[in-house]
Write a structure and sequence with these properties.
alpha+beta; Glutaredoxin; 11 helices; globular; Thioredoxin-like_sf; Thioredoxin-like_fold; TAT_signal
Length: 237
């Protein structure tokens, strides 16, 4: 399972700043697009599956995230939705941009859904974006994620993604020195690897987006009416 997920090593972060995002080398737009689409496309059909072999009725929530989860809502809500996403995945951007607002308005803010966002970077550029997200204060994590997804074409598929990310980071209040420190933070890098390994090996996440609704695993981007139906079917009464 893990070999299939990481067969081309797209999530590897070794040398992310030196080789891929370094000053002297930038991944081409075509190469980034190829990585993102190949990974996003697998299993992006909205199908349901068992949630793997983890303990308990909701194995996704059995994981203790070393970086801390990015969350919204009441942890005691009757429905827990866990999303695994990659910042360079077009399906993930569509899922996030189209579903998060109605989810927040109708279910998170009303105490019905507890939302958990976890990074599953599929390539070095997505890894760098994930590391930057972890640089901002915790209360700003999801806000920064929103910016990355909404502006994805402006940084993920350009000739110099490093420079584009640095520009977005600067607009978010991250200085150049902080930007450099973010992309070389080994603790964050190790945390992302741990998060991705658990998802791949225990939860059998093979593509993004993958969501778990009260432990039920759903692969791929879902239109809002379909996602809402899954959520309402999990609500008591």
């Amino acid at each position: 399972m893990a070999d299939r997920t990481f067969s081309s090593n797209p999530g590897s972060t070794d040398g992310v700043t030196r080789r891929t995002l370094g000053r002297g080398a930038a991944m081409t737009a075509a190469a980034i697009a190829m990585l993102g689409l190949a990974a996003c496309g697998d299993g992006a059909d909205g199908s349901s599956a068992d949630a793997g072999s983890g303990a308990g009725s909701n194995p996704a929530m059995a994981y203790e995230n070393p970086l801390g989860d990015i969350t919204l809502g009441d942890p005691d809500a009757p429905v827990v939705l866990v999303e695994y996403a990659s910042y360079t995945c077009g399906h993930c951007a569509a899922f996030h941009n189209e579903n998060l607002e109605p989810l927040k308005e109708n279910y998170i803010e009303t105490g019905k859904v507890y939302y958990v966002f976890r990074e599953y970077p599929l390539d070095p550029v997505a890894t760098a974006a994930s590391m930057l997200t972890r640089c901002v204060s915790p209360e700003k994590h999801l806000e920064f994620s929103d910016v990355l997804f909404k502006r994805q074409p402006q940084w993920a598929f350009v000739q110099d993604p490093r420079a584009a990310l640095e520009g977005i980071a600067r607009q978010g209040g991250i200085s150049k020195a902080q930007f450099e420190a973010c992309l070389t933070d080994q603790e964050v890098l190790d945390g992302l690897r741990d998060m991705q390994s658990y998802a791949a090996e225990t939860l059998e996440v093979q593509a993004t987006p993958t969501i778990f609704v009260n432990g039920e695993k759903i692969n791929g981007n879902l239109p809002w009416p379909q996602l809402e139906e899954i959520i309402t079917n999990q609500l008591p009464g």
